[in-house]
Amino acid sequence: MLTPRILLSAYAQGVFPMAESRDAAEVHWVDPRRRGIFPLGGFHISRSLRRRILRGGYTITLDQDFAGVLDGCADREETWINPDLRAAYIELHRLGHAHSIEVRDASGALIGGLYAVTLGAAFFGESMFSRRTDASKIALAFTLRHLRNCGFRLFDTQFLTPHLASLGAVEISRADYHRRLAQALDTCADIAARALPTPQEVVQDSTQTS
Which pTM does this prediction carry? Predict the structure, then answer.
C-alpha cells in the first residue's frame, strides 16, 4: 500500500513511483541515471508565449482543484497514474505535501495545469496537461517564478524531454541531483508564503527565444 510516509521517504531519497499503465496493479520505483531539472531562473519564453501571457484572458490559481489537475494529467491515451497513485497523491495533497497550479479560461473552465510533491525547498514536478494552446506552458512559467519568490531551491522534472529542454530544463547526473536534493531538503520553503506572480513578473526576467 502506498502510504504518505512511504512516498515522502522515497522522494527524500531521490526516487519516485510510476505505474506501467492506468490499469497496472503494481507501482515501480524509478531513480534515473540522468535527471531533468529546471533552473529556477532559466525558463525560456518565446515571443508568442510572452504575448499570450501578457494578453490575459486566463486565471492562475494555487491548490484550488488538485483532483481536477491530477485527472487532467491522467486523461490521455497512456498514463502512469493508476488508481493507487491517484489516491496517494490526493492524500499527500490533504497533508500539504502535494500542490497544483491551475489555469482557467475566462469562463472558469480548467484548461491546463500541473501538480507536484514538495519537501523542504524541493519541488518534484509530476505531470502537466493542456486543453488549450500553451496552457501548460503558462502554468509552468508562473510556477517557476512563484517557486523563486517562495524560496525553493530545486525543481525536479524527473526526465528531460525535448519539450522541457526547449523551455530551459537541463539534464544532470544522478550524483549532482542527489547533492542538490540534499541541499534543498535542508532548507525550508512554503509554496503558500507569497501571492502568485503577475504576468509582468513572469515575463520580465525569462530568457526570450524566437
Answer: 0.94
